[in-house]
């Protein structure tokens, strides 16, 4: 899974990062709240591990912004030396799903991460809808305006991420990681997949829902955008 660790202590960050990387997880790092917010809102992560005492923006504020300002609901595990009940309540009210007090065993951290992702997966909707477009994950069926839209599995994986993120822009890097992990192909097969996706879900209909945001990525829009 892809994990964002927001921790300003380099020794703690290296210790956690090395341990989780050995277990096969892809790690991204931020050593301050501003950078952590930027990464969390521009990429898709399975889990965010978030320290509270951060420079530039504290963990409580960052977590609250993710949930309230950006409407992002990636599971957040807070790490902190603060063990009071008041601090824990503040963390959960800000949107964290778990709270681990330092010092902690790395094995316990791993167990909590796994529990968070399993809980998140069990709550994912099986029917995604954006405007007139729907994707039923239980049978991998796509419909637009009530008409079944056939497409291959890679396009459906892309579409699922686009629909869960809509109307936010999804970066090319996140789509490539979704399909190929840390080792994307040398050629540019993503372009071919996006072409096939457009041909299936947009070409037969009145307007295009899939937009290219030049230099950034792609966006799925529920309605036609008219130029001013």
Q: If you had to describe this structure to a student in words, what would you say it looks like?
A:
The protein has 228 residues and is of the alpha/beta class. It folds into two domains: 2-123, Response regulator (Rossmann fold), CATH 3.40.50; 127-220, Arc Repressor Mutant, subunit A, CATH 1.10.10. It is 43% helix and 21% strand. The protein has eight helices and twelve strands. The chain has helices at residues 10-22, 33-42, 59-69, 85-94, 106-123, 153-165, 172-180, 189-201, and strands at residues 2-6, 26-30, 47-51, 76-80, 98-101, 127-130, 133-136, 141-144, 147-148, 170-171, 210-213, 217-220. The strands form three sheets. A five-stranded parallel sheet has the order 2-1-3-4-5, with helices on both faces. It has a four-stranded antiparallel sheet with strand order 6-7-8-9, with helices on one face. It has a three-stranded antiparallel sheet with strand order 10-12-11. Helix 2 packs parallel to helix 3, helix 3 (59-69) runs parallel beside helix 4 and helix 6 packs across helix 8 (189-201). The longest helix is centred in the middle third of the chain and has 18 residues, at 106-123. It is elongated. It starts with a strand and ends in an 8-residue tail after the last strand. The model has no long low-confidence stretch (mean pLDDT 88).
